Amino acid sequence: MELREALGEELFSQVDAKLSEINKADDRKENPVRYVDLSEGGYVGKEKYAHIQTESAGYKKQLEDANGIIKSYKDMDIDGIKQSAKDWETKYTDETQKLQNQLTEQERTFAAERYLDGQKIKSPLSRKTILNEFLAQNMEFKDGKFIGADAYMKGVREQYPDEFQAEENEGTEKKIFVRGTSNTYKPTTKSEEEAYLKKKYGNNKYSK
Questions:
Q1: What is the DSSP track for 58-101?
Q2: What three-state secondary structure class fits 5?
Q3: Staple partner for 146: which of 98, 100, 139, 174, CB 3.0–4.6 Å?
Q4: Element spanning 141, H or E
Q5: How far apart are CA 119 and CA 117, in angstroms?
Q6: For residue range 147-204, what is the model confidence (pLDDT) as tens digits?
């Protein structure tokens, strides 16, 4: 069942209008909010989709080149075929490495974007600049994390504090209130307690 059918025309129109309003914001133009029916299995995350697209394009190009070479073998002599096979092996190795480097760079970029999502950068323009500078540091990328990223961002925050939102507890000291007990009398035995209460409240029946 499609979303329009499930929600009804009136409610669907309201949802569609609200999403259009949200996506007009500057920080949503490159990353708009979309709706999709997950039950149909048609949704693929941004990172996974980009990876699949790049990988598919790379292998498609290799297959097209291979088919062209194979077709040309019919008109070659044995020595020509051997040399062509050697050249193809070299070409395949180089292009496979190039494709792998492209996929690795995409993974680094997506990981950097996720990391900066938690840095509370004020504007999209500042975020884009900081992202480019962050990637330019060429930090070691291991197990999905950048080694030394926290130390680097600490320096950026100190150098450009106005580009970041202030921390919630920054500059706020918690004050602890402690009730004074130095002059408070506390009876140590039951008889002393009874004597104390009688002295303080007398015969007031509501004091018990």
A1: HHHHHHHHHHHHHHHGGG--HHHHHHHHHHHHHHHHHHHHHHHH
A2: helix
A3: 139
A4: strand 141-142
A5: 6
A6: 999 999 999 999 999 999 887 665 555 555 555 555 555 555 556 767 766 666 665 5
172-193 burial, b if ≥16 CB within 10 A, otherwise e?
eeeeeeeeeeeeeeeeeeeeee
Phi, psi of 142 (to 5 degrees): -140, 130
Rounded to whole angstroms, the Cα distance separating 40 from 50 reads 20
Which residue, among 43, 60, 155, 42, has the nearest Cα to 99 in the 3D structure? 60
Distance CA 49, CA 47 (A): 5
CA angle 162, 164, 170 (to 5 degrees): 95
Helix ranges restricted to H, 41-188: 46-72, 78-117, 124-136, 149-159
Token pair belonging to 34? 């979309």
